[in-house]
Amino acid sequence: xxxxxxxxxxxxQAGGTLRLSCKVSGKALNALDIGWLRQAxxxxxxxxxxxSPDDGRSFSSDSVKGRFTISRDTIKNxxxxxxxxxxxxxxxxxxxAADWRVDEFVYWGQGTxxxxxx
Length: 118
Known about the structure:
Elements: E1 3-7, E2 10-13, E3 18-25, E4 34-39, E5 46-51, E6 58-60, E7 68-73, E8 78-83, E9 92-101, E10 104-108, E11 112-117
Parallel strand pairs: 2-11
Antiparallel strand pairs: 1-3, 3-8, 4-5, 4-9, 5-6, 7-8, 9-10, 9-11
């Protein structure tokens, strides 16, 4: 059983910075696809950034490219999302998810709220 726990959300002004953490237990990161997804009120869930298990290659959506960076610490089995130059449009609940199967992640965290004020 894989367990995923996010932390690090909060309230920040536009242009500010937050760092989200995703602690994974039950399986090593080099055996799991990990993704950060977000959902804003009234909007579809959006895949923000992902990191592959074997070589740690990352993907980021166009909406956050150049501002958000996904990384991992395989010793701590933790994935990070560094969010710089935050915009009000980045507001939402951010979820960490693990283990991509076919077209969906299997394991999900409880979510952490990110609010960016203008």
